Amino acid sequence: MRPFEPADADAYLRLATAILGEPITHWYLVRLIPTLVPGSPLVIEHGASGLPVATGAARPLPGTAPRACTPPVELVNVGVAPAHRRRGLARAVCGAVVARLLTEGFLDIRVAPERDNSAARALYRGLGFREPR
Ligand SMILES: CC(C)(COP(=O)(O)OP(=O)(O)OC[C@H]1O[C@@H](n2cnc3c(N)ncnc32)[C@H](O)[C@@H]1OP(=O)(O)O)[C@@H](O)C(=O)NCCC(=O)NCCS
Fold it and tell me: How many CB atoms sit inside 10 A of residue 116's CB?
């Protein structure tokens, strides 16, 4: 597992296209990367090909945190290539993103899966995230 590098751009876009099931352009990355916390996104490479097959990132939420505090952050761009799912890659990449965030002092970490995304909801529940009361 390692941080995204500019040389990953084409392979990362192919991964995002496979995850989302629709064509993703370079503009997506150009807009995305500056919104993420430094060191995001993380990628997991496929051992044989060296291509990224899983990714996860974090983005500060525009918020109301006092200036001295770290802002709330949200996990974003969590996804795994369809052929590599159910092998623990999302759990691994999300765990690594969360570990980095905690090391860097981010304490308010959130996720926002769609209500009908039962796979993502189960993933986040398993990682210890709780539904807001
Ligand atoms: C959701 C997603 C990231 C899971 O990736 P993954 O690598 O298959 O997940 P993992 O193998 O790490 O699974 C971890 C846990 O998540 C849950 N989970 C994952 N896929 C699941 C599925 N299809 N149905 C139910 N639970 C699922 C399980 O609790 C699983 O633990 P288990 O295998 O011990 O039962 C993947 O399906 C994906 O890329 N989906 C499309 C993009 C997306 O929805 N991203 C999340 C946006 S919020």
Answer: 7
